[in-house]
Amino acid sequence: MTELNDLKLKVLELLKEDARRTPTLLATLLGVAEQDVCTAIKELEDQHVIVKYAAVVNWDKVDDEKVTALIEVQITPERGRGFEGIAERIYLYPQVKSVYLMSGAYDLLVEVEGRNLREVANFVSEKLSPIDSVLSTKTNFTLKKYKQDGIIFEDHQEDNRLMISP
Amino acid sequence: MNIKPEALTDSNKAMSSYLSPLVREIPSSGIRKFFDLVGGNKDIITLGVGEPDFTTPWHMREACVYSLERGFTSYTSNAGTPELREAISEYLDEQFAVRYDPKSEIIVTVGGSEAIDLALRALIVPGDEILVPEPCYISYSPITSIGGGIPVGIETFAKDEFKLTAEALEAKITPKSKVLILCYPSNPTGATMTYEDWLPIAKVVEKHDLIVISDEIYAELNYGEKHVSFAAVPGMMDRTILVSGFSKAFAMTGWRIGYTCGHPDLIAAMLKIHQYTVMCAPSMGQVAALEGLRNGLGEKDRMVEAYNQRRRLMVEGFREIGLECHEPRGAFYVFPSIQSTGLSSDEFAQRLLAEAKVAAVPGNVFGLGGEGYLRCSYATSVSQLTEALDRIGQFVEKVKKEG
């Protein structure tokens, strides 16, 4: 685990809010030298703390049908490797968007994205279920995404403040 | 019904003659005039708001909703619920090292504004002079006048970081001086006072036997040394009426929950007025405020951190534009000088609104020392502030070219 100093944590928080913020702006907001921000970002990237800069997209607003399913998977862990090898076999499929090892009633939570129900169903029946260690799968299709990464998609809160006030 | 316009005018004239001269003679607020100019235009970037852009944290709103579901809709005791007063007492002790007895030294009020009104009404004998360092929050002088007092402005200057000095205070004191109203961190300048700054002021206050109303509504929004309450200065506790509330630090402006603390004799007098005018502060707001003090301090700190970041952006932005800007260490306003443009505060603000679609408040509305400045609130998003600074920069360039 990488131990981060205060500046790096603040840089991370500000970039998490908006990854397009420039080092100049970050330096101004934090009251530090721009070079220090650049160094912090470079180190965070090198340490793979910052893995990627990506947009959070509300696909429901786009006329490009996508279906997402969260699949609860029970597996038998492998001797010596535990869950790692099976997780890897699963996450390498491009249609798998995320994989989490879970405590509780199942072992892996696998997020799968497809163009339609049939595509996701095919993935589960043809790729996921046949894996030797997989004991069972339970597929939950998401109907609507309200919030992701702390961002509320349908945020109706307008700025109702008076334009000028004491 | 067919009423002729002339008849209506006559009627209005007649009605206004019923008004108390104290009220009739109060000029309407400069902010109000500017508010009318801005209107409801949503295309404008506004730096004119004196309130947080954060919504009251959800757990506080939820606490209120649950209290309503449980039917908590009655009057509370006049001074506020015992739980809230107890929590305020502990909070002030922990944060600012001032200890008030929740039973006899605290009233929960309808915002800090009511607290200031109560204090002035409890103290003023018509003809008393009330000292007010300016530029300052726009209400102090009118409330003083309504109470029959005479507001006496004390000009403060950018060269002193808009701090009140003992010399300036002493120079305005007469045998009629009775009350000094302080507001640090300051709306509109963002000025703060340190413990060392307070000591000479306290000496003058003691020497001339003044009572101090210390409006500390922005106490938590402090970006330098920790806020020092005037009541915490040795010898000042008994002669200080502390005013504060939840509006700014807890993003609760619309709830109207404030509080005031002071010597039991003063608080008892203020409570009389409070119970005959508003009975008690809204019960549901008191529930939300209590939840804020119990479980909302982390969110408060996160909001303060966000304001601090924006403050740096604004100060640096104005300096890059070429406008002098003293560094505010509190509240959420910057108060840049626009004197180098050759425009008055009013002209600058009006043209900025019309030509650059940015609303800010002309400094002259805040009293002495405000002319030549502009109040810009940074209680809005970083992206809006960046865009506003861009527009102001282009506008200033244009004005300077006009020569």
From TrEMBL, chain A:
Q: To which species is this protein native? A: Paenibacillus terrae
**Record-linked Gene3D superfamilies:** 3.30.70.920, Winged helix-like DNA-binding domain superfamily/Winged helix DNA-binding domain
PANTHER family found in the cross-reference section: HTH-TYPE TRANSCRIPTIONAL REGULATOR PTR2 (PTHR43413:SF7), TRANSCRIPTIONAL REGULATOR, ASNC FAMILY (PTHR43413)
Residues in Transcription regulator AsnC/Lrp ligand binding domain copies: 73-144
Please identify the protein, giving its name as recorded: AsnC family transcriptional regulator
List the SUPFAM superfamilies. Dimeric alpha+beta barrel, Winged helix' DNA-binding domain
UniProtKB/TrEMBL annotation, chain B:
Q: What is its EC number?
A: 2.6.1.-
Q: Which residues form the Aminotransferase class I/classII large domain?
A: 42-392
- Which cofactors is this protein said to need? pyridoxal 5'-phosphate
- Decide whether keyword Chaperone is in the record: no
Looking at the keywords, is Acetylation present?
no
Keywords, comma-separated and alphabetical: Aminotransferase, Pyridoxal phosphate, Transferase
Annotated family: Belongs to the class-I pyridoxal-phosphate-dependent aminotransferase family.
Q: What's the protein name?
A: Aminotransferase
Q: Give the originating organism.
A: Paenibacillus terrae (strain HPL-003)
